[in-house]
Amino acid sequence: MMSFSLQTMEQEIPLPHASPSPQAGVMLTRRLRLEPMRQGDLDAMHGIVNETSVRRFLFDNQATSRERVRNMLSASERQFRENGTGIWALRTHASERLIGFFCLWPFVVKREMELGFALSWAHWGKGYATEAGAALIDYVREHLGWKQLQASTDLHNNRSILTLWRLDFVESALIRGPAGPLRVFKRKP
Hints:
Number of helices: 5
Largest sheet: 5 strands, antiparallel
Order of helices and strands: EEHHHEEEHEHEE
Distance between the termini: 20 Å
Radius of gyration: 15 Å
CATH topology: Aminopeptidase
Helix content: 25-40%
Strand order of the largest sheet: 1-2-3-4-5
CATH class: Alpha Beta
Structural class: alpha+beta
Oligomer: single chain
Number of strands: 8
CATH superfamily: Gcn5-related N-acetyltransferase (GNAT)
CATH architecture: 3-Layer(aba) Sandwich
Number of domains: 1
C-alpha cells in the first residue's frame, strides 16, 4: 500500500495533458482486470481503505468516510474523462469482487502525478500488485507518453517498497510527508 494523505485525494492539482485510451483505461493481465473505478464500487473501496492492515500506510492511518470515498470516485471519473488518469478497480478474472485499486493521482507533497495502490489484506502476497503495476506502467508508456513515473511510500512500508523494486523503481529521495517521512521512487516507463 502506498502512502496517501487525506487532503491530497480531493485537492485540485493541474494534471499532465494526455488523451484517454480508446478502452477508457481498461487493462487485462494474466490474472487481473483493471478498469476505471465506478460509483458502484463505493462500498467495496470504503471497506478496503478502512481495513486496519491497509490503512496503516494509507491516508495517514485515519478512518475514511463514505463521503470522502464518494468524492474520490467522482474526481477519478472526471480525471479519466479529461486525461486518462484516475483510480482503477482491481479484480481477478474469476470474480467481480473488488480486491484493491491502483491509481495515477496527483499528490500534494511534490505536486506530481504518482502511482499509488492498495490491496485488501486477504490478497497480499500473491503477486497481484506487481502484475497490476506492470500493466499500469505499460499504460503510462503507451497511452500517456510520460517520460517518468513517480511513487512514494511511508518510510517503513516494506511490502510496497519491495513491489516498487520489483517494478524497477529506484529510490530517489527521502522527503517530509504530511504524517512523516516518505521514500520517493522514480522510474522511466
